[in-house]
Amino acid sequence: MKRKSIYALTVVAAxxxxxxIAAAGYGAYGKPGSPRGxxxxxxxxxxxxxxxxxxxxxxxxxxxxxxxxxxNHLRETxxxxxxxxxxxxxxxxxDKNLILQKQDEIHEIRAALRDNIxxxxxxxxxxxxxSEQREALSRMMREGRFSGDYRYGAPMGRxxxxxxxxxxxxxxxxxxxxxR
Length: 180
Known about the structure:
Blueprint: H1 2-25, H2 44-49, H3 54-90, H4 96-128, H5 131-142
Helix pairs in contact: 3-4
C-alpha cells in the first residue's frame, strides 16, 4: 500500500513539473516559445496592415530574440521567487513578514520586466518602423484595433462597426473581480 501511494505521489509531482515547464515555454501571447516582450502588434495581422518589409520583419525577429536572451535571468528569478512564495504559504504557520518581503521582491522583478518590455517595444517602434508606419500604427491604436485576441489572426478590438466582447476589451460593462 505504501509503495502505491509513493508511486502516485511521484507521478503527480512529475506531472506538475512537466506542466510548469510547458506553461513557462508557452510564451507571452499564446504563441509557443515566443519571448516575453514579443510584440504581437508587429507581426501577423499588424505586420500586413503596416506593410512591413521582409528586412523589417527580420530585424524585429532578431530584436525579439536578443530581448528574450537578455531577460531570461529576470524571468527565471521571477519563477524561483514564486516557488519560494508558494513554499512560504505551504508552511503550517506562515510568517507574514517573510511573505510580504517575498511579494515585494516579486513586484520589483515584475517592474523591471515591464520597464524592459516598454523599452524594447519603443526601440522596435522607433528603430524599425518608418514615420508613415508609426503614424499608421498610432491611428490603429486610436481606433482601438490594438486590443483583442491575436491568436486567431485578427484583433477583436472595439471599433464602431465591430464592437469587442463585453468585459474583455473595455467595451460594455466589466464585471467586478468577484463576479467573473
